[in-house]
Amino acid sequence: MQNSENTNIYEGKIIVTCMGDAENLEAFETWVSSLSLEQLGREINEGELLGAMNLASAEEVPAADIVSRQVALGNDGTFFDSQSEPQKKVDPNGRILRSQMEQGWSNETLEMLGRRFIEETGMSNAFAAYLEQQAAAENEAALESGDEPGF
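Predicted structure:
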């Protein structure tokens, strides 16, 4: 749908979870990451993948960000009839810090909210796998340097 003067532009982040058979994790990652969204949907609906999706977040795109966000999605910035010029992209970390400061949230509160977000968006297993990979990489680096793992 093209933008008109009577509509706003919104951005949604969708998490797609899929499962399938492969020789190993690397083969699965290569296969799935090579699929277009159309192909992924076809594989989930009619092919060799089991899958589901959920909306992780949705927000209105500020007029000043419409063109830059289109470009970030691989468009030339003309999909929506936007009269705005691209401006500096708003850093999500800045938005998080601003919310934290405005609400007076401690780091512990922010961590609890982050964990809640990870759980509500169905990303707990992905986050756990990320932490395990990070720990393994740090422990391997520690062993190579002669340090004790975990320190």
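Summary: Strands lie at 10-19, 50-60.
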